[in-house]
Amino acid sequence: MSAAPLLVTMGDAAGIGPEIALRAFRQGAAGGCVLVGDVAVLQRAARLVDPLGVPLALIERPADIAAVPPGAVPVLEPPGLPDGLAALPWGCIDARCGAAAAACIREAVALVRRGEGAAIVTAPIHKEALAAAGVDFPGHTEMLQALATDDGDPRPVRMMLANDELRVVLVTIHVALRKAIELVTLDAVLQTLRITHASVPAWAGGPPRIAVAGLNPHAGEGGLFGDEELRIIAPAIAAARAEGIDAQGPFPPDTVFMRARRRPGHREPFDVVVAMTHDHGLIPVKYLGVEQGVNVTLGLPFVRTSPDHGTAFDIAGRGLADASSLVAAIGAARAMVAQRAGR
User: Fold this and answer.
1) CATH of 164-288 among 3.40.50.300, 3.40.640.10, 3.40.718.10, 3.30.450.40
2) Nearest 5°: CA angle at 213, between 197 and 266?
């Protein structure tokens, strides 16, 4: 494990992010982490975790974690936080919450790129609040991609959602479905296979065996239900295999996930599934349960994970939030940092 701490961003101030972050610390799962967020917001959330509150220690830089008293949560406030966040109602969409979430992400990326943080674990943000704040990114993945880019040419990244049973990498993510189909190109599929091949060994224990899901029903049925499999997906798989990537398919998207689902005592033929669109890939993972689900951004120069759920405005402020997915994300980030360090 790197000597630098993991950085946990608080997410949307009106959602469950602050609460689950503090629960992760209270459960002992976030030891050696620094919470990047607004102290007043976290003090409000602390009363949901414990009627007596949770002790917070304001620090100026991640290295100050060494001086934080035992049992206290180290908090680093980023520049640019709006005033009055803790007075906003729970479960509201507000531009100030979007601006605060973006400020936390920017600061975490700046710190990890300077080597002051080992990895970033992001609590959920609300995309409408982000847009209301004028932040021109539809989600974490696109924002992190831009912040990791120095020369104006964004590095290719992909979203992977994983739990104990299934791993899925997406070719397209936060765009309208009509647009997503247009974005399924040979280059996009091949690039996804390359990123998956390079990034997933940390999870698979070696070069991953990749199953590629088709786009159309029955993977096009030989062109009867669409020809994207014939024109785009199959040629991309062939090109990937020529590069030594263990990719197979395209398989019907309604059955391929069952073939990659891990079960005790079974040796499944695949380690990961590449899916063409957001819901094609994420519905199977989330159906298995969000409690242990982890979102990983592949292709970044640093490790980033997050829970596989959203801000849960319907239960925000009620003290009901479950931190299991965030705890899993912290554990995954630690494991990936250790793997990158060769341990």
Assistant:
1) 3.40.718.10
2) 75
Domain-wise residue ranges, the chain: 1-155+301-343, 164-288
> 159 - beta bridge partners?
297
CATH code, 1-155+301-343 = 3.40.718.10
**Per-residue pLDDT tens digits for 225-262:** 999 999 999 999 999 999 999 999 999 999 999 999 98
Q: How far apart are the C-alpha atoms of 244 and 198, rounded to whole Å?
A: 11
Task: Give the burial class of 26: count Cβ atoms within 10 A of its Cβ; 0-12 exposed, 13-18 middle, 19 or more buried.
Answer: middle
Cβ(299)–Cβ(195) under 8 Å? yes
Going by pLDDT thresholds of 50, 70 and 90, the confidence category of residue 202 is low
**Cα–Cα distance for residue pair 57/74, rounded to 1 Å:** 5
